[in-house]
Write a structure and sequence with these properties.
It contains 2 helices and 32 strands. With 466 residues, the chain is mainly β. The protein folds into 2 domains: 2-62 and 98-184, no CATH class; 195-458, Neuraminidase, CATH 2.120.10.
Length: 466
């Protein structure tokens, strides 16, 4: 009876123990006699190296986003001390009334001795705590996912996960840990806008220092652009106090009700060019880190599913993911919170994640037609205020950004669909960074978008002074 209850609880609240990026705890009171705690991870990511960035005049880029949480403050002691006062209703000890038993408390197995005192404890982590037994790997009737493989619990003893099916990600199948089956990828979300964002700077080749190009990313105040597939151009963006009010206001826009006023001027400066092969422009992508850039080169079947890294120090290019997957990659994003790479291509509005343990790409979600010809942008941006990573997707010839979140149970939800309020341009690569805005390349120009409702998820509540 207890096992049936645990299984029902697991199925109702959990997805795959290897396919979600969040940890959930289920508890029912001060002492939890049934715990189904899992650590849900969407896929192991590639760990970037920490070599120093060496190209001239360039710093290490912007600081990574972090979230903070403060502990509660105790009541002040009227005598000026900090000791706790008398508690007329003290919390019971975990083992009180459970002498000689093994109990479960918020995913921790606690062994109680014959005197009702705690003898030992074990954090079950991604296993299950069963009263009277302790931590076990899984229970009969439970399913899980490991990359594209569907697993079923063999209770043993000892319990183990047995593979029962393999999902074909290239046919847009996804492992479902609740049903224990491969299910077709479904479109997530709609195409009704829920918020607005705006265009700010636009740098045209010939009129500015922008030299042209596609496939863009940003880090700190710098932009990185693939020009012609054989040159990596580095630019610095500077915001000016052009309205003379003594403040730097990157979100100020005539149409922005949250920050109304003239758009402040931006200046772009070409810093450096690296002569290196970056793959075919306009169908590739860059992801910038302090020591170099990751990039895609899917010009042949030999490099499908793969991506590379160019390192400034020594100007060396190396393949960092060599996957047998037949996925043609055109876009690349990285969730730095959970260490997950995301990829997609122009052939469909579908998002995949890279599962390092099995060296394969896993289908994640599909998004609706945004009236933009085809998909042409993906970026992962962490909310600087609460540390939540969101996946943003864009079509090529429309003015929308879809915002997606991996929710509990390994499901995806469309949080928002932001509409671009302004003159639209093509998206041929998407990046995020400088001025806490998105940057898009369109061949002969690059432009900056952000602000409005989008800023609530990309701007710190208390931004540092510039």
């Amino acid at each position: 009876m207890v096992i049936d209850f645990i299984l029902a609880l697991v199925s109702a609240t959990k997805g795959s123990p290897t396919m979600s990026a969040k940890t959930e705890r289920v508890n029912g009171g001060k002492i939890l006699l049934v715990s189904a705690a899992f650590i849900l991870v969407a896929g192991a990511g590639y760990a970037c190296s920490s070599d120093d960035q060496t190209h001239s005049e360039i710093g290490t880029g912007g600081a990574s986003s972090t979230s903070t949480s403060g502990g509660g403050n105790g009541a002040d002691n009227p005598d000026g001390g900090t000791g706790a006062g008398f508690d007329p209703d003290p919390e019971p000890e975990p083992c009180e009334g459970h002498a000689g038993e093994t109990i479960c408390l918020e995913g921790v197995a606690i062994t109680c001795d014959a005197n009702g005192e705690e003898a030992s404890q074990q954090d079950c982590g991604d296993e299950i705590c069963v009263p009277g037994t302790g931590c076990i790997l899984c229970i009969a009737g439970q399913f899980s996912c490991e990359g594209n493989t569907v697993l079923s619990c063999n209770p043993g003893p000892p319990p183990q996960w047995d593979p029962i099916a393999t999902c074909d990600a290239m046919s847009f199948q996804k492992c479902n840990a609740v049903q224990g089956a491969c299910l077709p990828l479904e479109i997530t979300g709609g195409n009704t806008p829920t918020g607005f964002y705006y265009q700010y700077a636009r740098f045209q080749s010939g009129d500015t220092e922008f030299l042209g190009g596609y496939d863009i990313d940003s880090l700190g105040d710098y932009l990185y652009v693939n020009r012609g597939g054989s040159a990596l151009d580095v630019y610095k963006v500077e915001l000016l106090d052009s309205d003379g009010d003594g403040e730097f206001e990157p979100n100020q826009h005539p149409d922005n009700p949250d920050d109304t006023g003239p758009i402040e001027d931006r200046v772009i400066t070409h810093i450096q060019t690296y002569d290196t092969q970056l793959g075919q422009q306009s169908v590739g992508e860059l992801y910038a880190v302090p020591e170099g850039v990751f990039f895609i080169d899917s010009h042949s079947t030999a490099t499908y599913g793969d991506f590379f890294k160019f390192t400034y120090n020594g100007q060396v290019t190396a393949k960092v993911v060599d996957s047998p997957s037949a996925l043609i990659l055109s876009h690349l994003g990285y969730d730095e919170v959970n260490g997950i790479w995301y990829g997609s291509n122009e052939q469909g509005r579908r998002v995949f994640s890279y599962h390092a343990a099995s060296n394969e790409w896993v289908a994640e979600f599909a998004y609706p037609d945004l009236a933009g010809s085809h998909m042409d942008g993906i970026e992962v941006v962490t909310d600087p205020n609460d540390g939540t990573p969101y996946v943003y997707v864009s079509d090529m010839t429309s003015d929308y950004l879809g915002q997606y979140l991996r929710d509990r149970g390994d499901t995806w939800v469309q949080v928002n669909l932001f509409e671009y309020a302004g003159t639209g341009e093509y998206v041929e690569g998407l990046g995020f960074g400088a001025l806490n805005h998105f940057w898009a390349a369109a061949g002969s120009s690059i432009y900056e978008i952000g602000g409005g409702d989008l800023a609530k998820f990309t701007e710190p509540d208390d931004p540092p002074p510039r």
